[in-house]
Protein: Galactose oxidase
Organism: Pseudopithomyces chartarum
Amino acid sequence: MTAVPKVILILGSGANVGHHVTKAFIAKGYKVASTSRSAKEESNSSDIINIAADLSDPDSVAQVFSKVKSSLGIPSVVVYNAAAAFPVDNKDPLSLTLADLKPSLNINTLSAYSAAQQARLGFEELPETSSRTFIYTGNMLNTAVMPSLVDLGAGKSATAHIVQAAATAYADRGFKFYYADERKLDGSPPGRNIDGEAHGKFYAELSDHKEQDTWLIWEDTSDVKNDLAFPIQQANLSKDATVPSVSGGVLWPDEANKLFYLFGGEYPNVDELRTRDTQGFTLWFYDTIYNTWNRSASDASQARIKWPAYGAGAVTDEGVAYWYGGYLTENSDSSYRGSDFMMNNLISYDMNTRRWNNNTWDQTRRAEGSLHYIPASEGGMLVYFGGVETNRTGGQTTFSNMSEIHLFDIANSRWYTQTSVGDVPKARRGFCAGVVWAKDYSSYNIYLFGGFGSDGAGLGDLYILSVPSFQWTLIYPLPQWASFPGGRGWSSCDVFRGNQMLVIGGELTNKSISDCDVPKIQGQHALVLGQENVELNAWWHAPLDNITGYRVPDQLIKKIGGDTDGHATATAPSMGWDGEARDLEVYFGTSFIASGREVTRPIPTPVASSTSQPTNASKGKGSNAGAIAGGTIGGLAGLAAIIALVFFCLRRRKRKGVNQQPGKTESPSSTSPDVTGMAQNPYINRSPVSPDTGTLSSAIMHPLPYSPQSSPPPPSIPWHGISSSYYQQPHSPPPYGNQAAYAHQQQYYPPPPERSLSAKNEATYAMPVELPSAETPANAELPGSPEPEEPSHSQVQTPRPIRKHGFI
């Protein structure tokens, strides 16, 4: 069988982008056909042909494709790189004449539509091994407004919609359609400084991607006025294959600059790790204003930084991100060879200066625990507990004792360990937790949910650790259950509004239970953290939008004294301070109020719109820090509060995915302004989100798969406000200082009515990579759900005791 030749057609080839795209694809063994008005066809060869074409005539496009097919073969990659604009007075956009508008729309939209149409017809004749990729060079005008370029903006917006529709409709056939938009590191357009070489490299990378199957999922936590009573998850922000898809990493939010950074995590395989290494070790970050992925500029201070996985992360109010412990593995750092190596260093990244630090103050190596920032002492503190650790002598890995709480005083750069008492939880890893505190900072309360016990079984209980009294309180279930057939670990947990938490997904160990217990609301559970649980007679409750601030609940007041506003009387451990930890008594006597951070990049003013304008969700002092990824701008529906529920969904859709990736573009004619750009998500259908992109300053462009997701139908379960989740029996706590024992299993989660949240019943496997300071506990039942039933034990399976890679 004769091999199908690899052919690329470039419509609108210029001396910059067109030249470099041609060069990049020749290096990949492609035959190249390019068009321009002044093409000299007499210089054609057997592998490179030039075709004269006027793209202001959409009817000419089909003729171009016919000529390419007869000369070189069916193009498996089509790049539409033509653009045109007729600038007018910025204060009078309607002064543009129809005579000028028509050719502009022909070039920017109608000829592009015809090219996509012809590309699709050709793709249907090509084998699955062919690239079958269409890339439209766009710019920011599909989401931004420049009145003087009304024709170009109209054309780009219309074509972005066409690209989105094509990507959605033809994804199951393996056809890929991208809208490309180049941006600078700060998210602004490149102007005339278009990087043609980066375009060529990036477009070549796009042609190699067989699928666009990764999503960046977000939700608006103010969006609870719907039939579901829960925020609806959106999958219209996409993340291309160039951006790492890792498990066991963390997202660090930079609220001042409305960014979040991806750090750490294991790659699915060594090949993807090597791809990262070719790009150079650096941080990827997501811009929530322009909705673009970029790479940060490297700094000499990062030379001592390795890329770990399954550690713990947090971010301070001053914009310093921390990572503690974790593993160095062959799939996280290519310079490492050998079995997984547990770490004991504390890595920090200052988002203001972009400098790294890597220090080791503790000899014990730890992983899979939880790290939280609290505004105590002179410069804030980090609180760490749980997970696993390697002892200092024999190197044996054991589960950490949950009564041992490790605290790092930031101002003094020193670790302390203090013993906690009360309803000390069973040792565990893979749990999630979130922190809030009293108005007067007299208590800092960390809510913990689930995880995997030392026997590998999934857990489903809920505890509060309160410091500085260092007391654990079991709050769910009461009385404690022996085991949890529906228990899970690796859930994504996020504090929002400073008084509630959302819990999403997780990994079940009971294989008789389907992968999603509440698919209609995409595996979400909500928890009220404060006194509202008493007033509502339920911890687990649909999100509430009528409460503000955190009120210390009665269950804690009974232990630490005071009232709902704070005023705790138990401000030290009941058994006294442990050795050097007595320093903490002084440190906890002070609260740290960070000075306002300066924005280090331009933040645009929102464009007036008939729709609500996006804002940041309110956050209690620090308790919600990191929960908000940022607002967005511009004339589409505003995003009121992008929560820290943003996580990477490694959803393998096997060609069912509807994704899109961007590339770069240039303007071929003298009348075309250089408002072009880099790889961008084709178009966002609900929010003013400009598609994902890459960083040209680092010569990388990023395709962004687009995957629309319909709202799930309303659940059949009645929502709270009517009845509570579970009847909670009076609780008799175990003796202080002892870890709770578990004897026999009881049913916790009912089997789900559907297999997944997809309309096509496609199972979702995801690893939530949480925004560190916005973690939250728990996987709980929806209000009004049935009481637990006695389970069978035969289907309970335990995961690997240290790390797990398959996630829901």
Summary: The two ends are 42 Å apart (CA to CA).
